[in-house]
Amino acid sequence: MIQRVLKILEQIENTAMAVLALVLIFAAAAQVVLRLFDVGVVWLDPVLRALVMWIAMLGALAATRHDKHINLDALTRLLSGWSLRAARLLTLLFAAAICVVLANASYGLVQLDRESMTPLVNDIPAWWVEVILPVGFGLMALRFALRAFVLPAPSQPEAT
After folding, report:
1. Which pLDDT value is given to residue 154?
2. pTM across the whole model
3. Which regions span the lipid bilayer (predicted)?
């Protein structure tokens, strides 16, 4: 049951990332072409920045899902056995804690923009776009914490 939910979540994340990337590419290309003719869409630049933020957060979620995020590679080369597992546990818990702090801070930003009714463009509130930040950091914190307590055997570096 849990595996099925995780698989569905993965498909949603991957599909959203692909669709948003295509929209970003075509919208940015259209903006460039329009500017060649001294015509531009005023609201498109903030929308493109918002798309970049969403794609970046979805990409970070994918990286944490596949354990491909930034790592301290030196630890895997210097440690082994229980010390490697302990170091991995500590780094995963530290990453989870940082993500919790970032989720909390970004939630504050969303609340602030929601209360102040800050617009992204026209009548679209900025907080609608920013909501990916606390959600994304929260999901990353959850993934790091789960990985910390369901420790997969870390791969050993190849001998050279």
Report:
1. 45
2. 0.81
3. 12-34, 46-65, 86-107, 127-146
DSSP characters for the chain? -HHHHHHHHHHHHHHHHHHHHHHHHHHHHHHHHHHHTT---TTHHHHHHHHHHHHHHHHHHHHHHTT-S---HHHHHH--HHHHHHHHHHHHHHHHHHHHHHHHHHHHHHHHHHHHT-EEETTEEHHHHHTHHHHHHHHHHHHHHHHHHS-PPPPPPPP-
> Tens of pLDDT along 139-160?
999 999 988 887 554 454 444 4
Q: How far apart are the first and last CA of the chain?
A: 42
Report the pLDDT value the prediction gives residue 159, as an integer from 0 to 100.
44
